[in-house]
TrEMBL record:
Family, per entry: Belongs to the triosephosphate isomerase family.
Stated role: Involved in the gluconeogenesis. Catalyzes stereospecifically the conversion of dihydroxyacetone phosphate (DHAP) to D-glyceraldehyde-3-phosphate (G3P).
GO-annotated biological processes: gluconeogenesis; glyceraldehyde-3-phosphate biosynthetic process; glycerol catabolic process; glycolytic process
Organism: Psychroflexus salis
InterPro entries with a match to the protein in the record: Aldolase_TIM, TIM_sf, TrioseP_Isoase_bac/euk, Triosephosphate_isomerase, Triosephosphate_isomerase_AS
Name of the protein in question: Triosephosphate isomerase
Amino acid sequence: MRSKIVAGNWKMNCDLSETKVLLEGLTGKIKANNQNKVVVAPPFTNLHYAFESLKNTNISVAAQNINENESGAHTGEISAKMLKGVGVEYVIIGHSERRAIYKESDETLAAKTNQAVKEDFQVMFCVGEELASRKAGKHFDVVKTQLEKGLFQLSASEMQNIIIAYEPVWAIGTGETASPEQAQEMHAFIRSLLAEKYNNGVAKNTSILYGGSVKPNNAKEIFGKADVDGGLIGGASLKAEDFLAIIDSL
Ligand SMILES: O=C[C@H](O)COP(=O)(O)O
């Protein structure tokens, strides 16, 4: 079901002691009347701690990655069952850093998505174009291909487990945000693809988040757009005060 969501992707930041401090800064601070979903994605080593310390709060825990296999000889990898066992409900798949630095292909991302959906995680599936593609006017094509190859193998009913995050690569960690209009334009395009591939129900019920240099001073304007259902926040999720201000902007 479409919801308003603010998710914090901590990336490779925060050891256990820093995780404790950051979570203490969030716990009990979200206004009681706030109906939006709040998710944090600490590194793997702190997922269990995060789940235990957030148990009686309205903050859920996400993993930043998942392996597409059930178990076995995959040194250094983490399975769906392991994540389930420590209370993880959400998984980020296809972040541009995984695509670019760790060379995760569309096929791998499709397999990861299938595995995560099979295990009933909520998947935050990331898409987004690089600057060269935006400059060449190819951004819609890039996002369409990413969705077609990594996500659209799912059935309409499986799409209930999917949240899409549009993160233009040129806006990630750069301080340069897509304008609210650019975000809205892409989100509306993604929704039109969902309607075309599936049906209007899927299009209407899928949450689409924006990510890329969202800060307390620009969140409200971006979140104010009709097809923007919240944000996937990197840098600003590492400071409790900033993350809370962004949650309040939704
Ligand atoms: O997953 C989050 C995005 O990569 C955005 O990161 P950022 O807010 O630091 O630009």
